[in-house]
């Protein structure tokens, strides 16, 4: 059962939807606080909390004594992804997440200085068929690779996708073929890490692209 969002988060998501669909276009001014709160069905203190959160994410500019100005959505950065994962078409996000995985994971895998933790994880893939278990396992693969790469920005970048991945991942792993292929991928990655950076990079790229192809094939079917 999906739990209802608390009022401030509901107001925030509704406002963000209006920003993204052009109801309040970039450069425009939001309605007066009383009017906006009424349209969202929340109190003014709750509205202020939602506005402050969106302002912190760079989507709004709150000016003392003046109307709140709408900034461009891209100024909100990766925060917008979390909103889309809650309110948008999750299926449309899966291929983009897979593409991003194919772009980043090979570099992180090749840069892992001490692969012992990652190898130990890869050696014990899920024994269940639950898509959520595969999603959690695969996320840990990426996290350990990012953390082990020695690039301090890698875990931060990956972390920005955590909520989106947690929601979209089960869609991909819902297919038995995806789970079976993933186990093959994990075995290949485990073996490649023992062979050195070049092998780790190549196998990570090959397996990631295979995941993209598998999703595309499923989408066509």
Automatic annotation (TrEMBL):
PROSITE patterns the record matches: HTH_GNTR
Molecular functions per Gene Ontology: DNA binding; DNA-binding transcription factor activity; fatty-acyl-CoA binding
InterPro entries membership: FadR_C, TF_FadR/GntR_C, Tscrpt_reg_HTH_GntR, WH-like_DNA-bd_sf, WH_DNA-bd_sf
Entries under SUPFAM superfamilies matching the protein: GntR ligand-binding domain-like (SSF48008), Winged helix' DNA-binding domain (SSF46785)
Keywords (A to Z) from UniProt: DNA-binding, Transcription, Transcription regulation
GO biological process per UniProt: regulation of fatty acid metabolic process
Chain ranges of the HTH gntR-type domain: 5-73
Family annotation (Pfam families): FadR_C, GntR
Protein name: GntR family transcriptional regulator
Source organism per UniProt: Deinococcus arboris
Taxonomic path: Bacteria, Thermotogati, Deinococcota, Deinococci, Deinococcales
């Amino acid at each position: 059962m999906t739990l209802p969002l608390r009022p401030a988060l509901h107001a925030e998501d509704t406002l963000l939807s209006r920003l993204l669909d052009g109801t309040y276009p970039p450069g425009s001014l939001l309605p007066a606080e009383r009017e906006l709160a009424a349209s969202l069905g929340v109190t003014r203190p709750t509205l202020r909390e939602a506005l402050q959160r969106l302002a912190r994410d760079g989507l709004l500019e709150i000016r003392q004594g003046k109307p709140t100005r709408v900034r461009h959505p891209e100024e909100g950065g990766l925060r917008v992804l979390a909103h889309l994962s809650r309110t948008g078409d999750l299926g449309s996000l899966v291929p983009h997440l897979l593409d991003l995985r194919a772009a980043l994971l090979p570099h992180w895998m090749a840069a892992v200085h001490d692969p012992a933790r990652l190898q130990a994880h890869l050696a014990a893939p899920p024994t269940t068929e639950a898509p959520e278990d595969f999603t959690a396992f695969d996320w840990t693969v990426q996290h350990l690779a990012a953390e082990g790469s020695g690039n301090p920005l890698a875990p931060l970048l990956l972390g920005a996708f955590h909520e989106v991945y947690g929601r979209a991942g089960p869609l991909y792993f819902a297919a038995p073929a995806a789970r079976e292929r993933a186990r093959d991928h994990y075995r290949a990655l485990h073996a490649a890490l023992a062979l050195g950076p070049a092998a780790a990079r190549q196998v990570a790229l090959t397996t990631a692209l295979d995941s993209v192809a598998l999703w595309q094939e499923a989408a066509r079917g």
